[in-house]
Amino acid sequence: MGVVREVQKHGTFSSISHLGPPPSIDQTPAGYFEVFESTKIALTQVMAALDNNELDIIGVFGIGGIGKTTLMMEVAKQAKRELNFDEVVMTTVSHKLQLEKLQMEIAEQLGLKLRERSLPVRALRLATRLKLVKKVLIILDDVWERLELIQVGIPHGAEHCGCKIVVTTRSLDVCNEMDCKSSINVKVLNADDSWKLFKRFAGNIGESPTLHTVAKEVAQEGGGLPIALVTLGRALRNKEPHRWSQALRALRTSKHEEIKGMNEKVFSCIKLSFDYIQSEEAKLCFLYCSLFPEDYDISVENLVMYLVAEGLFRNLETLDERRTRLHAIIDSLKGSCLLLCSDIEGYVKMHDVIRDAAITIASSDLYGFMIKAGLELRYFPKVENPTTVKRFSLINSKVYKYPDQLEYSELCALLMQVDGYFLNIPNDFFAGLKALKVLDLNGYSSILPTSIKCLTNLRTLCIQGGSLKEASILGELTNLEILSLKESTLDVFPVEIRRLTNLRVLDLRLRRSRLSLQYDDVTVPPNVLSSLSQLEEMYLGKSFTRWEVEGLSGRSFANLAEVACLDHLTTLEIHIRDCNCFFVDFVNPQQNLMNFKIEVNAITYDREASKTRRLIVNMHDDNGGLPKSVGSWAKALLKRTEQLHLQNWKDLRNVEQLSAEAFTCLAWLYIFNCGVNIICSSAFFKNLVCLENLTVKSCSECEVVFLSDNHTIKKSVVLCLKSVSFRDLPKLNSIWKGIDPYVFQNLEYIAVVKCPKLLKLFTPMYAELLKRLVHLETYSCEGMVTIMSNDDDDQLLAFSQGFDGNKILFPQLEILILSDLRNLTSLIQPKILLDFPSLEWLRVELCPKLKQLPFGFQSLSKLSKFEADRTWFEGLEFQDETIKICMEDCFEELHFEEDCNKTN
Fold first, then answer.
1. Does residue 627 have a cis peptide bond before it, meaning omega lies within 30 degrees of 0?
2. Is pLDDT above 90 for 638?
3. Model confidence at 543, in pLDDT bands (50, 70, 90)?
4. Residue 799: phi, psi to the nearest 5?
């Protein structure tokens, strides 16, 4: 106490104070934030996610330099101002995580000093401080990998319901690793916004039309990437016109180092993303995409062929496994915004600025890429040191004279595909390329140079879209593993291919050499395919349709037994002209064959479905009889088939006749112009547990689709059936006869067209269980008097299901179309109230006897489009006129003279 008194006696304290709170985030200068279309969309999405109490961690991802940090500074301000966050903290994590520094930056913004050295203790102190804030937003900018929030000291979820976290990153994978409940992609600027941003930094471009045009093209080269547009604008600000032209040339030839700031600010940013790619396989895949011209749609399947030849994924046994691995890499690169989605399925694209950076990386001695794609070169490029070149791209060049012989001793990949340009390659051109593994000559239309036989290490050869009159020399490439002549023309099948015993992929889906509706006469010689014992994938398409039925000896062309003996075959695409060939019994059922598209006597097929195991069997009238027996090969295929088309089988009475064990994988069944009177019985349902889509069309004898045979169906047997379509069935009188409706509870789509004997669609009991039905339409069924009515068995069914009979609810139905039903008098008998709470579109036309719509008020809550004839609508009877008034608001009048032809 004496010490205290002494201090009080001698001490002089003019004022006492604590450290003031740190400045609020909305008081911090954030620079100029301009709202463009892409940033506006992202900003709106982030703010909506922050306002959603169900989302505690939100991810924002996009390519480096897209403007995520600037966007987050605006989010921080708006969140503080509009969403009433008590505290908003923003900090940068970066690719080199320093946990102590990260904790310190968060703490300082909260007015907290962390003096402890122990990271767990610091985390506990920080978490305790954050829990004192009722509503807090923490923005973690530039995250590169999973960050353990508990180690930082950030409570969330059940620990702190008021804590929201926004993570910005370059990769969607990081968003997933951080358990983000919502991931928002910040996209590049559109052309107008790019030009607007570019002009702001480029200054006064002036009135010169020439300069204005060049400036526009320079801005276009920025590819909508803000960091590139800003850097280019600043570099060219107030520069002379010739400097603009020089910059444009540099950009188009990927010589970005000639432009101030592009290396340091733009490409270093992209290089960092590249360095962070975890596997060398993924890095090489990324760099391979730079071999193609700007804005090019890059085939992922071609990448598979190139990279497999390079020896990637050697630890994986089959080509299909390697393809799956590459697709995962492609998805990861797209998630990291290093690759872009293409409008074409199975293709990817590369952003122009990303491509320029990739070319710079790829051109180093480490990777040895030489990329001249899309430059339309007239002369073959010269190289100071050819031994450093490992991968060479001349795609879409217009070189008119090639050197007599290339001396690139280390070259392993050469891409020379042309687009409508004659490629005149000297005979000895390939003689010095002993190490070559990949050769792409897509579009090549000439005689192959004899020196191609020198490519003894060649693993992949692609000549797609070309024309080969003579291809026997291909037999010299005995180490070849992948041969693709897709969309090329071939006058004679090269029997020498039988020597390619290491071949794993053979793609001979040829283009027809002449316009003809008939099949070409090119055939596969006998004993060629059976020699390709290592073959995993064979694509013949409709190029070779003639197959022998006889045994292996004394034949003029191949039979299917040669195909069936290929034990390693996993993928098969083939057309068989003669139905008898398909049903012949073969010894080997090919257990490895998992993907196939087999067309038996088919001319066309429905391209809407794209199952990987598709079988089309078209018997035609002259071969309409059922085969005496179905061979083991055909049975094995039927058992694995996911999509089955049965066409023009006049003797087929039901699908069960084909095989009692078939269809266990069947998801899509299409029956056209067959003699079926029923589709299948309830006893066969156990084989159809995977069936999702059923279409029956133009079957003149079909009376019942699903028929009960008194077989007891267990409650566990619920079909996956989602869509049924029945069209042009003149004798159909019942869709489901005597079958518990429980089986069909997954139905979402029902279409019934031109079934004149059908009196109704289903009973009220069926309707009661169609809870997932979204779309219901029926056209031109002249015998139909009601949509729903009771059967004699309905009392028993009602008792078993507990149906009270007062109201039927279709909770998911969005579309209801009733057209050309001349005798339809009601929607349901007896009259029961119908509720369609999700109904959006109702169309009623040419139903003159329908006088009532027994709708409840729930049916109108989402109705936005009601199409009908005005006179018919005015004559409708409603128990409550309020319903009619509500329907009037969304009424659109139909004109039957124009619309009646749409009922086909």
1. no
2. no
3. confident
4. -65, -40
Residues 6 or more apart whose Cβ sits within 8 Å of residue 617: 579, 582, 600, 601, 602, 644, 645, 646, 647, 649
The alpha carbon dihedral of 170, 175, 178, 180 has a sign of: positive
Tokens of 515: 């316009």
Q: What is the pTM assigned to this prediction?
A: 0.81
Q: Please state, in angstroms and rounded to a whole number, the distance separating the CA atoms of residues 770 and 100.
A: 59
Chain centroid offset of residue 783 CA = 43
Q: Per mean pLDDT, which of 213-222, 254-263, 479-488, 546-555 is the most reliable?
A: 479-488
For residue 28, what pLDDT band results from cuts at 50, 70 and 90? Answer: low
3-state secondary structure 214-252: HHHHHHHHCCCCHHHHHHHHHHHCCCCHHHHHHHHHHHH
DSSP strand pairing (347-349 vs 298-299):
antiparallel
pLDDT for res 348: 95
Instruction: Please calculate the CA angle 792-798-801 and round it to the nearest 5 degrees.
Output: 140
**Are 442 and 463 in contact, with CB atoms under 8 Å apart?**
yes
60, containing H or E segment: strand 57-61
Q: How far apart are CA 795 and CA 763, in angstroms?
A: 11
Q: Is pLDDT of 847 > 90? A: yes
Q: Which residues contact 62 (CB under 8 A, 6 or more apart)?
A: 68, 170, 185, 186, 187, 337
Q: Would the pLDDT of 421 be above 70?
A: no
The answer to whether 475 and 454 are in contact (CB under 8 A) is no
Q: HSE on the CB side for 16, CA within 13 Å? A: 3
pLDDT at 514: 45
Is residue 460 helix, strand or coil?
strand
The residues pairing with 694 across neighbouring beta strands, listed in sequence order, are 669, 724
Place of tokens 């339409």: 777
pLDDT for res 604: 55
What is the amino acid identity at position 496? E
Could you report how far apart the first and last alpha carbons of the chain are, in Å? 104
> Cα torsion at 55, 57, 62, 65 (round to 10°)?
130
The CA distance from 750 to 730, in Å, is 18
pLDDT reported for residue 554: 60
Mean pLDDT of 767-791: 90
What does the buried/exposed string (b/e) look like for 663-691 if buried means 16 or more CB atoms within 10 Å of the residue's CB? bebbbbbbbbbbbbbbbbbbbbbebbbeb
Q: How many angstroms separate the CA atoms of 499 and 518, rounded?
A: 31
Number of CB atoms found within 10 A of residue 698's CB: 16
The kind and range of the H/E element at 576 are strand 571-576
Kindly report the number of other CB atoms within 10 A of residue 769's CB atom: 20
Q: How many CB atoms lie within 10 A of CB 701?
A: 16
Provide the b/e sequence for 124-139 (b: ≥16 CB within 10 Å).
ebbbebbeebebbbbb
Rounded to 5 degrees, φ, ψ at 749 are: -140, 130
Residue 600: CB atoms within 10 A of its CB come to 23
**Tokens found for residue 325:** 């691995």
Backbone φ/ψ region at 892: left (φ over 0), alpha (ψ -120 to 50), beta = beta
Q: SS3 letters for 749-786?
A: EEEEECCCCCCCCECHHHHHHCCCCCEEEEECCCCCCE
Indicate the residue type of 880: D
Neighbours of 618 (CB within 10 A): 20
The 3-state DSSP class for residue 482 equals strand
Q: Which residues contact 157 (CB under 8 A, 6 or more apart)?
A: 56
CA angle 694–695–701, rounded 5-degree value = 115
Q: Are 186 and 219 in contact (CB under 8 A)?
A: no
